[in-house]
Write a structure and sequence with these properties.
With 236 residues, the chain is mainly alpha-helical. The chain folds into 2 domains: 3-95, DnaJ domain (Helix Hairpins, Orthogonal Bundle); 111-236, Pectate Lyase C-like. 23% of the residues lie in helices and 2% in strands. The chain is built from 4 helices and 2 strands, in the order ααααββ. Strands 1-2 form a two-stranded antiparallel sheet. Helix 1 (3-10) packs across helix 3 and helix 2 packs antiparallel against helix 3 (43-71).
């Protein structure tokens, strides 16, 4: 994989993606890896977030520069001014390290090629997967019965039809995850983030989501159509 392909992969894009797609992917990933979304007391994850953000920034700048050269535009030489309005995150300047002339060394923490991303149907029952980074992995129909997934990062993970009954998903990040028809019966979901997740037809019977009357699970933008809720009723 050459350097340009690596930059596209860091932004989770296919080589040749448009500048608009590069900018949108950058915004999405800065949102996902914002340290405020991760446990403050987990130093390893906080450091990983900083490394991810550094790599994301570098990838976007390199690809914007390349795009500008190919299209004959001058914006790649003035992005600090003409593109300042394109940063939707007020904190994003905090993650803009100085851009030296020398290229940054390869990021050792960048995710490996997708060779081992297909874990569909695997047996992880009772496995300790706490604090792991499973983002983008295919775990459809996997057996995760009773698995420890606390503080696990599972952005865009595919868990369609997976068995997560009695699993511990305490503070797990399942942003944009595919959980269609997943079995989450009696799972611990306290502190989990399911923002934008697809939970259509999932079975949440008996799952722990509340403390008293307080809902302690993030479900912003989640699709719960047809899901069986913890109290047994089907979501409309």
């Amino acid at each position: 994989m050459n350097e340009i392909e690596r930059y596209y992969r860091i932004l989770e894009l296919e080589p040749g993606a448009t500048l608009e797609e590069v900018n949108q992917a950058y915004k999405d990933l800065v949102f996902v890896w914002h340290p405020d979304r991760l446990p403050k007391d987990n130093i390893r994850l906080q450091q990983k977030a900083q490394e991810k953000l550094k790599a994301i920034n570098e990838a976007r700048e390199k690809l914007r520069s390349l795009n500008g050269k190919h299209n004959g535009h001058s914006h790649s030489h003035s992005h600090s001014h003409s593109h300042s309005h394109s940063h939707p995150h007020p904190d994003s300047h905090f993650y803009q390290p100085p851009q030296p002339k020398k290229p940054s060394p390869p990021q050792p923490t960048s995710p490996p090629p997708k060779a081992n991303s297909d874990l569909s149907g695997k047996d992880f029952s009772r496995a300790n997967l706490s604090n792991k980074d499973l983002s983008g992995r295919n775990l459809s129909y996997a057996n995760l019965t009773g698995a420890d997934l606390s503080d696990t990062f599972m952005h865009k993970v595919i868990l369609r039809g997976a068995n997560l009954s009695e699993a511990n998903l305490f503070r797990a990040n399942l942003l944009l995850a595919d959980l269609r028809e997943a079995n989450l019966r009696n799972a611990n979901l306290i502190g989990a983030d399911f923002s934008g997740a697809d939970l259509r037809g999932a079975d949440l019977t008996g799952a722990r989501m509340r403390s008293g009357d307080r809902l302690l699970v993030k479900l912003i933008g989640a699709n719960l159509t047809g899901a069986i809720m913890p109290d047994g009723h089907t979501h409309g």
